[in-house]
Amino acid sequence: MKTTTLALMVMGIVASATSQAAEIYNKDGNKLNLYGKVKAMHYISDDSSKDGDQTYVRFGFKGETQINDQLTGYGQWEAEFSGNKDESNSTTKTRYAFAGIKYANFGSFDYGRSLGALYDVEAWTDMFPEFGGESSARTDNFMTKRASGLATFRSTDFFGVVDGLNLTLQYQGKNESRDVSKQNGDGFGTALNYDFGGSDFQVGGAYTTSDRTDAQQLQARGEGDKADAWAAGVKYDANNVYIASMYSETRNMTPISGGFANKTQSFEAVVQYQFNFGLRPSLAYVQQKGKEIEGVGDADLMKYIDVGATYYFNKNMSAFVDYKINQLDSDNPLGINNDDIVALGMVYQF
Predict the structure, then answer these.
(1) What does the pLDDT average to over 320-343?
(2) Pfam family of this protein, just one (predicted)?
């Protein structure tokens, strides 16, 4: 099928949230781009903690400076501002804040608040219009998604030697002055993905291991002084078709009622098609099972079918609907809410 200009733009939007960044400065080897989006969104659900307005704004910048012909410095900051609260209770949170250097084709090194190594694979299924990418990938949960204190080395094309082979090496420093579910000890992570020299098919794997804090080890659920995780995934992205799946396991890492699951097994899969006139339907499945939970045994922590669609009016404006069809039993032993959720919204981004 012949790909239209609109379809190409849409795929670019999907591939990178900052692809439409506005360049505000570019002179003498220094660049500064601004990007952001307004997501006007409403949830419909019998779950009162989710039902209602979910509007927010995200805003950030990406900067770059050419130090010499081989060395480049860079930095990124992004924040989110709530739009669903009264002005006296509005909240702001920092999503990204890191700086680093890149040396020619050898690789890049940065430090700060960024993405954990496990998310190199988990990101492939985090493509739903609103939900998804939430089983083993959790914010401030060791190195599974966005996290603080990350020192990250990334090399594309494996130091410029193997086309399509990308390597991540990562270290996370201890974070204890926070809620116990979001603490972590010192840890290390790595990821490797390969697209077979530029093909439309990609495979990847990731592994992380971290010390658990004293407070985490004192919880009623979750044993062991280490928190470990691994993930493997596949992705196909071509001819207006996007297909991806991911399987992961965690040990003493995933927060649950009363502490942490001794073990989890997670599976996510998504398939999408980009029509040339702007419509992108999505069908997906997510399941996470907790294993050997104290006082429970094995139990589903997350299980749902996701049906959604996004319509792109142009590169800056879109509308979406996403229906999370919960498959958890109403009498699940951990008391996890099993209500469906429908998300409706419009997005403006630049």
Answers:
(1) 95
(2) Porin_1
Q: Where are the domains of the chain?
A: 5-349
Residue with tokens 């429908």: 342
Say how far apart CA 15 and CA 255 lie, in whole Å.
29
Residue 203 to residue 314: CA distance in whole angstroms: 31
**How far is Cα of residue 127 from the mean position of the Cα atoms in its chain?**
9
At 300, list the tokens.
């589903």
Q: What is the pLDDT of residue 19?
A: 54
Closest-CA residue to 169 (of 229, 227, 120):
120
Q: Which of 317, 318, 316, 299 is nearest to 308 (CA)?
A: 318
Asked if the 5-349 domain carries CATH number 2.40.160.10, the reply is yes
Average pLDDT, the chain: 93
pLDDT confidence of residue 90: 87
Average pLDDT of 262-285? 98
Q: What is the three-state SS of the chain?
A: CCCCHHHHHHHHHHHCCCCCCEEEEEECCEEEEEEEEEEEEEEECCCCCCCEECCEEEEEEEEEEECCCCEEEEEEEEEEEECCCCHHHCCEEEEEEEEEEEECCCEEEEEEEEECCCHHHHHHHCCCCCCCCCCCCCCCCCCCCEEEEEEEEEECHHHHCCCCEEEEEEEECCECCCCHHHCECCEEEEEEEECCCCCCEEEEEEEEEEECCHHHHCCCECCCCEEEEEEEEEEEEECCEEEEEEEEEEECCCEECCEECCEEEEEEEEEEECCCCCEEEEEEEEEEEEEEECCCEEEEEEEEEEEEEEEECCCCEEEEEEEEEECCCCCCCCCCCCCCEEEEEEEEEC
> Residue 173's pLDDT band (boundaries 50, 70, 90)?
very high
Say what the pLDDT of residue 116 is. 98
* Cβ-Cβ contacts under 8 Å for 8 (sequence gap 6 or more): none
pLDDT per residue over 1-29, tens digit each?
A: 444 444 444 444 444 444 578 999 899 89
**pLDDT confidence of residue 197:** 85
Q: How many CA atoms lie less than 13 Å away from 259 in the CB half-sphere?
A: 23
How high is the pLDDT of residue 11? 40
